[in-house]
Design a protein that fits this description.
Blueprint: E1 4-6, H1 16-19, H2 24-30, E2 32-36, H3 38-46, E3 51-56, H4 58-63, H5 65-70, E4 76-79, H6 82-89, E5 98-102, H7 109-115, E6 121-126, H8 131-143, E7 148-151, H9 161-166, E8 176-178, H10 182-191, E9 195-199, E10 206-207, E11 217-222, H11 230-234, E12 238-241, H12 253-267
Parallel strand pairs: 1-4, 3-4, 6-7, 6-11, 7-8, 9-11, 9-12, 10-12
Antiparallel strand pairs: 2-5, 3-5
Helix pairs in contact: 8-12
């Protein structure tokens, strides 16, 4: 039977990942991330990703014992009550359920392409620095059957703690390509015959109902302030807008992503 280790101090070397939750650079160097919340941690334990440890109140650990036991002996489980966990984290917690996972191996654009069924549906993000917004886009992408997410060099990582939490752990089921050159990645996809469609509110050309989203396509979304960078727009086949009444110039990026992804699925006969 897997043994849970109660803690009274945060000085254990094994707890370093929890002590540095607010220092994401250290986590990126080690290729680890923190999952937070009972549902998110459950999804992590049910996923194919490596789980290094878990830290939570004892009653949550007992409730998750079957999932935790299935990870033995690779996982270490520590227990502490929520007030102590909040001191460790430095912020108030609703449940105090945490786990450390290992990021998957870096995925190349070509590999994502080869592993995807047809018609392919990719999502790419440019300049999306807000972790919660990125997590919400991930959640929508998984809900609508997206095959891969391409994260540009000016966007946050979907494995940031807040992004993972906002995605409700759906990021564990989505292949992620993190690129240092989004424009080059889009050009590579276009060379494969995939249409790259930029979600851009200021266009008088096409709306989402008029665009061809039934074939292989990659939908590109930018941040809500500046939108998609001009160089990235230039690397796309076309800019497409969501029709809106006068006085409304844009939607939250997660809402826009949901609208585009719904339309792509509708055109493919999935809705």
């Amino acid at each position: 039977m897997l043994r849970f280790q109660p803690i009274e101090s945060f000085d254990l070397p094994e707890l370093a990942a929890y002590r540095t939750m607010r220092l994401p650079h250290e986590h990126f160097v080690e290729r680890i991330f923190v999952a937070e919340g009972e549902k998110v941690v459950r999804r992590l334990l049910e996923s194919e990703l490596d789980v290094l440890s878990a830290l939570m109140p004892a009653h949550h650990a007992e409730a998750m014992r079957p999932l935790l036991e299935a990870r033995a002996p690779a996982i270490r489980v520590y227990t502490a009550e929520r007030p102590l966990l909040e001191r460790l984290a430095g912020y108030s917690m609703y449940q105090g359920v945490l786990a450390v996972g290992r990021m998957p191996e870096p995925l190349a654009v070509e590999t994502a392409w080869q592993r995807s069924g047809r018609p392919r549906l990719f999502v790419a993000v440019d300049g999306l620095a807000n972790a919660e917004n990125l997590g919400a886009v991930v959640r929508n992408a998984v809900a609508f059957g997206t095959h891969a997410l391409i994260v540009g060099e000016t966007s946050s990582s979907p494995y940031l703690r807040r992004a993972v939490r906002s995605s409700m752990g759906t990021v564990f089921d989505l292949p992620v390509v993190e690129t240092n050159d989004l424009c080059a990645a889009l050009v590579q996809l276009r060379g494969r015959g995939m249409r790259c469609v930029a979600a851009h509110p200021h266009t008088d050309r096409r709306t989402i109902a008029q665009a061809d989203l039934a074939r292989d396509c990659c939908l590109i979304f930018g941040n809500e302030g500046d939108g998609i960078a001009p160089a990235v727009r230039a690397a796309c086949d076309e800019c497409v807008a969501i029709p809106m009444p006068p006085g409304v110039d844009s939607l939250n990026v997660a809402s826009a992503a949901a609208a585009f992804l719904f339309e792509a699925n509708r055109q493919r006969g999935r809705m």
